[in-house]
């Protein structure tokens, strides 16, 4: 168990809809990362938040957005869903402290499987 | 330059064999190289990691070999077991804008036959 929690575990919805995925980082971790993993694909970095502020953006679509709240949990919002958005969505957290890189190892949650019908 | 190239895409070995997964990079700013193991339906889990100033690191049956001059590193699994069947991702970390970034390889699906 990595200490990162994600809800829901599974989500089935229809095209055009909007969903929200939730992530709680490990205790003490300030940084949250979101990744998308399509079937038989690698991990695509979407976005990173650090202590409530957006820190980095990857291959995130304009239909997707995220935020990190004062209690450090994060939500990923996916709107105007398309069939191609069906994927596993992972959240990861790290301490993201200045200093040694090993303190910034990312720990992944169990993921949310999104199915768009 | 921000890529990590991983091979092979898939690998099948017999129990007790030594599967080897290879990764290569171009960016010399990468300063930490973790490996992740992912079982079906689960999140990736940190397996082992190495710094570029170290040529080899062992943790149990897992060994990373690192060749800094060739910009290549590899994962060896000694005495592989069916329970090692999973997808393995190499990765590389670099510091940018006071934040560490993680770049993943494309993954290797390993099957260890009994």
What do you see in this structure?
The complex is a heterodimer of chains A (117) and B (114). Chain A has 117 residues and is mainly beta. Helix content of chain A is 0%, strand content 49%. Chain A has strands at 5-7, 10-13, 19-24, 31-37, 44-50, 53-57, 64-68, 74-78, 87-94, 107-108, 112-116. In chain A, the strands form two sheets. In chain A, strands 2, 4, 5, 6, 9, 10 and 11 form a seven-stranded mixed beta sheet that branches. A four-stranded antiparallel beta sheet of chain A has the order 1-3-8-7, with no helix packed on it. With 114 residues, chain B is an all-beta fold. Helices cover 0% and strands 58% of the residues of chain B. In chain B, strands 2, 4, 5, 9, 10 and 11 form a six-stranded mixed beta sheet that branches. In chain B, a hairpin with a 6-residue loop joins strand 4 (33-38) and strand 5. Chain B is globular. The termini of chain B are far apart. The mean pLDDT of chain B is 93.
Tell the overall outline of chain A.
globular
Strand percent estimate of chain B: over 45%
Q: Which overall shape of chain B is indicated by the principal axes computed on the Cα atoms? A: globular
Content-based structural category of chain B: mainly beta
Q: How many helices of chain A does DSSP assign?
A: 0
The Cα radius of gyration of chain B reads: 14 Å
E-strand count of chain B? 11
Secondary-structure blueprint:
The complex is a heterodimer of chains A (about 120) and B (about 110).
Chain A (H helix, E strand, L loop, with lengths): L4 E3 L2 E4 L5 E6 L6 E7 L6 E7 L2 E5 L6 E5 L5 E5 L8 E8 L12 E2 L3 E5 L1
Parallel strand pairs in A: 2-11
Antiparallel strand pairs in A: 1-3, 3-8, 4-5, 4-9, 5-6, 7-8, 9-10, 9-11
Chain B lengths: L3 E4 L2 E5 L5 E6 L7 E6 L6 E6 L5 E4 L2 E6 L4 E6 L8 E11 L2 E6 L3 E6 L1
Parallel strand pairs in B: 2-11
Antiparallel strand pairs in B: 1-3, 3-8, 4-5, 4-9, 6-7, 7-8, 9-10, 9-11
């Amino acid at each position: 168990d990595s200490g990162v929690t994600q809800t829901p575990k599974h989500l089935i919805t229809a095209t055009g809809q909007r969903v929200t995925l939730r992530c709680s980082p490990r205790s003490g971790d300030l940084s949250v990362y979101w990744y998308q993993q399509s079937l038989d694909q690698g991990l695509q970095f979407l976005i990173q938040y650090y202590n409530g502020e957006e820190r980095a953006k990857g291959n995130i679509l304009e239909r997707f957005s995220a935020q990190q709240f004062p209690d450090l949990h994060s939500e990923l919002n996916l709107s105007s869903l398309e069939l191609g958005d069906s994927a596993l969505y992972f959240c990861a957290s790290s301490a993201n402290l200045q200093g040694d890189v090993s303190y910034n190892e990312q720990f992944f949650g169990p993921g949310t499987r999104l199915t768009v019908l | 330059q921000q890529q990590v190239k991983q091979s092979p895409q898939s690998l099948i070995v017999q129990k007790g064999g030594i599967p080897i997964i290879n990764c290569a990079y171009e960016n010399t700013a990468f300063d930490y190289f973790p490996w992740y193991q992912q079982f079906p339906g689960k999140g990736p889990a940190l397996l082992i990691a190495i710094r570029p100033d170290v040529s080899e690191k062992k943790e149990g049956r897992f060994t990373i070999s690192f060749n800094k001059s060739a910009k290549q590193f590899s994962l060896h699994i000694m005495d592989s077991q069916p329970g090692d069947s999973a997808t393995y991702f190499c990765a590389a970390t670099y510091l940018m804008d006071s934040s560490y970034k993680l770049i993943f390889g494309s993954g290797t699906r390993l099957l260890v036959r009994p």
